Amino acid sequence: MRIDKDLVAASATPLVLGILADGESYGYAILKRVDELSGGRMQWTDGMLYPLLHRLERLGFVEASWGTSDVGRRRKHYAITPAGREALVERQAQWDVVAHALHQVWRTAQDGLLTPPRVAEGWA
């Protein structure tokens, strides 16, 4: 299943902040974690992740620092800041509202599949 581009974009910030809330990480590991969390159904690219990380850094939601991998390569690590944790809590509350509303719409729509559609008042 392909996830719509708009939905991927809308969920990107809380996903990255949520991943970093578990501990600092680096680009490739974040991409792998998104893949794992989605069961392989969301496949992000470097071209999507790094602009997001840079935007989150400008907003003060993440901090970056250079580290060294096990094989001696330099890599940039990202950690969530207190402002990022606040933003994550706020985004989670927003997504809870959206998920609740969607659940209600889909439940109503599913019930409507078994009965003929209603005609709005004033229309015959």
UniProtKB/TrEMBL annotation:
Superkingdom of origin organism: Bacteria
Cross-referenced SUPFAM superfamilies: Winged helix' DNA-binding domain
Domain Transcription regulator PadR N-terminal per the UniProt entry, residue ranges: 16-88
Pfam families associated with the record: PadR
Alphabetical list of InterPro entries matching this protein: Metal_resp_DNA-bind_regulator (IPR052509), Tscrpt_reg_PadR_N (IPR005149), WH-like_DNA-bd_sf (IPR036388), WH_DNA-bd_sf (IPR036390)
Protein name, UniProt field: PadR family transcriptional regulator
Organism: Cellulosimicrobium protaetiae
